[in-house]
Amino acid sequence: MSTNNVLFDVPGPKARARYGVYSALTLLAGLAGLAVLYLGFNRTLGEGAPSLFSAQAWAPNPDGQWTQAKWAPFLDPATWTDYVIPGLQNTLTAALFAAVLALVFGLVFGIGRLSEHAWIRIPAGAVVEFFRGIPLLMLIFFTMALPIAINQLLPVFGMPPMTPGTFQVSALAAVVTGLTLYNGSVLAEVFRAGINAVPKGQSEAAYSIGMNRTKTMWLILIPQAVSSMMPAIVAQLVVLLKDSALGYIVAFPELLRSFTLIATRYSNVIPAAIICAVIYIIINVALSRVAIMLERRNSRRGRPAGVTAEPGDGPVPAVSVAEPGPSAGGVSKEP
């Protein structure tokens, strides 16, 4: 049996015919869905609308979302300097701070869950599971409401409430805190799984040469775990960047909120949504390419002898090469 057919059987004539019918139906359903979206946002669909087979139904309706006037605001530099670029800067700022803090949070609590001491392992596991189980939007709301909660608890302990304005949480701090706690808890599990995936022989070899558990963790296990789990870490950071769009709920002026203001001002919801989606796609595809590059770099590890080894690769076996021609004494000499 050919190796190409082990996991996949070549379809017969009837199966190919079925696949062709399924593909055609899927294509028609997709085209129908796009047509409904176009006509719906063009306001030429429904009762009182022109016939679907007329040119009037498919021509851009002045009251719809597809006219040139709806796209014109994005040709104005003021739209980009006043709305898009500031919103993009705020999104990247929140994502950058949250990414750094989430990595630190995940590394600390991921290692804490692997501790031999129960007084460290159990609280670390409780924190990770708690923040993993709470929706991100609720974490953002709870952070914004923290001053109100503190003011309500102070009288319980016999303390006077704080004066207004003494302690406030900004929208940026609320978004960064929510992203850090939620994504950091997910990254903690990623780090824990990566450390557990390192072969036990690595730690046993470290113990045999006199390393303690702390040195083994930081010098042997963590570098290998981070290297192997880097694609998963970058993928979670992509999720973190997309989740920063929830900041518009607490009036954080991020990218999605900026496009919401544009859509409200110019009544061009669909063009604004399309441009916003394109920007998010470009950023996320760039980050995904970084993950793919790191995955390919890791896949090149452990190459055979004769290939230049990268740092961290295993030892390359020596190859005996005989010199051409006999040496003195009639015996071939090897280096």
TrEMBL record:
<feature type="transmembrane region" description="Helical">
    <location>
        <begin position="133"/>
        <end position="150"/>
    </location>
</feature>
<feature type="transmembrane region" description="Helical">
    <location>
        <begin position="21"/>
        <end position="41"/>
    </location>
</feature>
<feature type="domain" description="ABC transmembrane type-1">
    <location>
        <begin position="88"/>
        <end position="291"/>
    </location>
</feature>
<keyword id="KW-1003">Cell membrane</keyword>
<dbReference type="InterPro" id="IPR035906">
    <property type="entry name" value="MetI-like_sf"/>
</dbReference>
<feature type="transmembrane region" description="Helical">
    <location>
        <begin position="216"/>
        <end position="239"/>
    </location>
</feature>
<comment type="similarity">
    <text>Belongs to the binding-protein-dependent transport system permease family.</text>
</comment>
<dbReference type="GO" id="GO:0006865">
    <property type="term" value="P:amino acid transport"/>
</dbReference>
<keyword id="KW-0472">Membrane</keyword>
<dbReference type="Pfam" id="PF00528">
    <property type="entry name" value="BPD_transp_1"/>
</dbReference>
<dbReference type="GO" id="GO:0043190">
    <property type="term" value="C:ATP-binding cassette (ABC) transporter complex"/>
</dbReference>
<keyword id="KW-0813">Transport</keyword>
<keyword id="KW-1133">Transmembrane helix</keyword>
<dbReference type="InterPro" id="IPR043429">
    <property type="entry name" value="ArtM/GltK/GlnP/TcyL/YhdX-like"/>
</dbReference>
<keyword id="KW-0812">Transmembrane</keyword>
<feature type="transmembrane region" description="Helical">
    <location>
        <begin position="92"/>
        <end position="112"/>
    </location>
</feature>
<feature type="transmembrane region" description="Helical">
    <location>
        <begin position="170"/>
        <end position="195"/>
    </location>
</feature>
<protein>
    <submittedName>
        <fullName>Amino acid ABC transporter membrane protein 2, PAAT family</fullName>
    </submittedName>
</protein>
<dbReference type="InterPro" id="IPR010065">
    <property type="entry name" value="AA_ABC_transptr_permease_3TM"/>
</dbReference>
<dbReference type="GO" id="GO:0022857">
    <property type="term" value="F:transmembrane transporter activity"/>
</dbReference>
<feature type="region of interest" description="Disordered">
    <location>
        <begin position="302"/>
        <end position="335"/>
    </location>
</feature>
<feature type="transmembrane region" description="Helical">
    <location>
        <begin position="269"/>
        <end position="292"/>
    </location>
</feature>
<dbReference type="InterPro" id="IPR000515">
    <property type="entry name" value="MetI-like"/>
</dbReference>
